[in-house]
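=== RUN LOG ===
request id: a7f3
mode: sequence -> structure
chains: 1
length: 293
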Amino acid sequence: MSSIATITIRPGAVERRAADAKDDGTLARQRIEPASAAGQGVPRWLRRLSGPILLVLLWHVASQTGVLPGEVLAGPSTVIGSAAKLIGTGELQDAMVISLGRALAGLAIGGSIGVALAVLAGLFRLGEDFVDATMQMLRTVPNVALIPLLIIWFGIGEAPKIALIALGTAFPLYLNVYAGIRNVDSTLIEAGRTLGLSRAAMIGHVVLPGALPNALVGLRYSLGIAWLALVFGEQINATAGIGYLMANAREMFQTDVIVVCLVVYALLGLGVDFTVRTLEKVFLAWRPAFSGT
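=== RESULT ===
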């Protein structure tokens, strides 16, 4: 029976521990263990939760001891009670659906425009000459400064809110997709030409897959900006949504409802970011990446 050896790889050194080693020269089977996996007793998900939990505990202690007065910021227990009331009446769920719909609609419009322009500018020099300078100029204009114009152009309905989100999400996707296309390894391009790939095949099998990592990074940036733009957009005469709940709570000095809305914004953003991270694991499984030590 062959013995089993465990090898733990560490930077600069290799430690081998053999169990029941035999002296007859029989080759032992070996099990490789990464050094990053050794000695991790606490699950990673628990370590990731420790920061938010500690913050909430500090918040609770400050509220109970009077260091943080209720009129300045309601305590966690009050916030949880307000959230339960809003969930019980259905207001919170309806607001979440409406706000999420606005954010996704704006992202779909702005993202489609940003990606299309990035592909045009990245693949063709003529497209770059017509598109890139204009996009670089417009991206420096603060989106919030455009709210008066959007109201004049689209009124005070849903259109200016979605347009504001679309403007905010178009530029990160444009910049990252454009950079991804232009930074594709030239050796891959030369290899494709050597294999006789057509221009369409080169774009479909080499250029666009090579730009995908940058595109997903741009999508994560765009999602973050979408929530920021949504906060401002829902202040434009909104009659529903999370921003509408926040505006009403601000008028009534209800800090507990404001905190509930902020937490909902954060959770929605965390949820869509988790979705993009999952897409990265699926579509970029071919690319080894450093995951920390």
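=== NOTES ===
The longest helix spans residues 199-233.
The two ends are 36 Å apart (CA to CA).
=== END ===
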